[in-house]
Design goal:
The complex is a heterodimer of chains A (290) and B (234). With 290 residues, chain A is mainly α. Chain A has one domain (2-276): Orthogonal Bundle (ABC transporter involved in vitamin B12 uptake, BtuC), CATH 1.10.3470. Chain A has helices spanning 2-30, 37-53, 59-82, 90-112, 137-159, 161-171, 173-178, 183-209, 218-231, 236-256, 262-276; strands spanning 117-118, 127-129, 134-136, 211-212. In chain A, helix 5 (137-159) crosses helix 6 (161-171). The chains are: A mainly alpha (290), B alpha/beta (234). At the A-B interface, helix 6 and helix 7 of A face helix 2 and helix 3 of B.
Amino acid sequence: MFVQQLINGIILGSTYALIALGYTMVYGIIELINFAHGEIYMFGAFTGMILMTRFNLPFPAALLLAMVTAALMGVTVEYVAYRPLRRSPRLAALISAIGASIFLQNLALLLWGSRPQNFPSPFKIKVYQSSFFSISQLEIIILVISFLLMVGLSFFIKNTRTGKAMRATAQDRDTASLMGININRIITITFAIGSALGAAAGVLVGIYFRTVNPMMGVMPGLKGFVAAVLGGIGSIPGAMLGGLLLGIAEVAGVAYISSQYRDAIAFAILIIVLLFKPSGLVGLPDQEKV
Amino acid sequence: MLRVENLSTGYNSIRVLKQISLTVSEGEIVTLIGSNGVGKTTTLRTISGLLRPTEGSIHFCNKDISHVPPHKIVELGISHVPEGRNIFPRLSVRENLEIGAYTRKDRLEIKKDFKKVMEIFPQLAKRQKQTAGTLSGGEQQMLAIGRALMSRPRLLLLDEPSMGLAPLVVLGIFEIIKEVNRQGTTILLVEQNAQIALRTAHRGYVMETGRIILDDSAEALLQNDQVRKAYLGE
């Protein structure tokens, strides 16, 4: 029972982690909570679903194309809703983010209607049993894809020229530009990667629960945000850890307390973190500038 | 090499620079001295593109760079070591230097320059993998200068390299500045420590509240009564 809950928690948590990465990367670079991120996740799920049902694309191709589409969409949102407000007070950009979120929800309602639509399952339902737990082939695929994406991102950030430029920009934007780094380009890349990861989460959740709807991004979007704060907003390993822990906490809460508290758990965690350790689990202390 | 003419800059409606003009010729060390808050840092930040001039012009090698964004200015050959060093604290020493060479693609030459920086600053060589934030103040200043050199600049802008450092460390840093200049890099040096700045530079400008009030050879400025009273504490 316990092992089973842990596995379920990790599966759910790995999708939260993917969403949280988008929040934390954007926050790291421009100190903005991109509240439209949940909608990018939703559009990713819809794009994946449409590509698989109407265009009969195989799952890997649909996943990749959904990620690319979402990346373009995230970049567009940044260009239209945030870039013109770069030098305005932070509150203006935050309000613009909420506006972008509402706009995208309504765009989806207009395009696809409010009724949930079925997501086809690309995999046969095959379940592996052991004496402690059972896990389906689909769940294994979700786990493997999430972890590959996270490992890939970590490698990119750590080792590539652009990844180093992203880290430098996050630490000190002005000085980064003095090094010859084009800050606007880094911001665009950040939005593209974060949105692609969010879309991947959307598609994975879509094939898991077999359904998509225009409001599906709201709750996972908020939970991804909670996960990012729990790990320490701005920290990439933090977002991964926060996502996994949040998933495990949520599943444990449902299993051992009551399923009615499913969503309350995430927000209780948010309040506790903000009260007692606002910098998060692996976040940086506030006073780090010399 | 660098020609600044009637340059004014401001933050919002406050004018910080009021029509300043200065020139730096190839091979020189030119210093800009003055007390806190007179606009020395603003001058450098405007030259490197972080601030937009409200009037006047900046020419570098006969090209107007007054409205070129900072990341393009680096490519033209100007490298700026900002006030307070501003190394990237959570990147390693090596990564800081690699970022310094961000605009370059000639891998072999970058490696050569990396070695050269390590020779100039042997203290950094031992700490390549260390997080830059854990270095001492002097080492951070060395790293900031080394990082700027990695772009192979023709003109190096140095903002208060003596800031917050022990006198002995300051002497070491200024020896290195002279050495860098001897090896062919032109330098524009902003300093509050007028004494050491004028002993290092060939020429100097004295700034007061957004204007340049004096310019002369460094030797002459060291003998100037006004300078001696106001900046050398005599």
